[in-house]
Amino acid sequence: MPPGPYRCPCCEQEDTLVAERPPPGSDGVCIHCYWQDDLVAFRHPDEVHGNCESLNGWRRQFGKAPLPPA
36 vs 15, 27, CA distance in Å? Predict the structure, then answer.
């Protein structure tokens, strides 16, 4: 698969995640919500890791449903 942009796993906007590989775990950053795609956040979406908020906490800011732990 060619380099992004990809759909952001946090805010779900199309073509906003700038990354070399697809999510999850791409380490790319969304140009819309500024989420840095982190594989650990998908495994533990209610815990804060590399970002300033948990993945589910940040998704709530954008009106998105929380993700279950992987």
Answer: 14, 6
